[in-house]
Write a structure and sequence with these properties.
Strand content: 35-45%
Largest sheet: 4 strands, antiparallel
CATH class: Alpha Beta
Strand order of the largest sheet: 2-3-1-4
Structural class: alpha+beta
Distance between the termini: 14 Å
Number of helices: 3
Radius of gyration: 14 Å
């Protein structure tokens, strides 16, 4: 089975970045503890005031499905939906990761 990578891009509403980032830090820390999660990074583009990106790796599709379907994810989205203007998620097959 292939590892699954998620690359997420979020445009945060003006004045909401600090609140959103704090919630995402908690989300990333909790996600890293889930079975099958191999990596969860928060990435802030240089010279950006309202954008955040994430990079996640899951052992397989089943691990991603468990993550995505969890009650914790529903609660997290409920807390963050009103802080985001635009959300793009790219779900990818990880083919050559070197160390992951």
């Amino acid at each position: 089975m292939s590892k699954i990578a998620i690359i997420g891009e979020f445009t945060v509403k003006p004045g909401c970045f600090d609140e959103y980032y704090a919630l995402m830090e908690k989300h990333a820390a909790a996600s890293r503890q889930e079975p099958g999660n191999l990596r969860f990074d928060l990435v802030v583009p240089l010279k950006s005031e309202n954008r955040l990106m994430i990079y996640e790796i899951y052992q397989d599709q089943a691990a991603l499905d468990a993550h995505a379907g969890s009650e914790r994810i529903k609660e997290h989205r409920g807390k963050t939906n009103d802080l985001v203007e635009e959300r793009k998620l790219h779900i990818c097959e990880l083919r050559d990761s070197g160390d992951a």
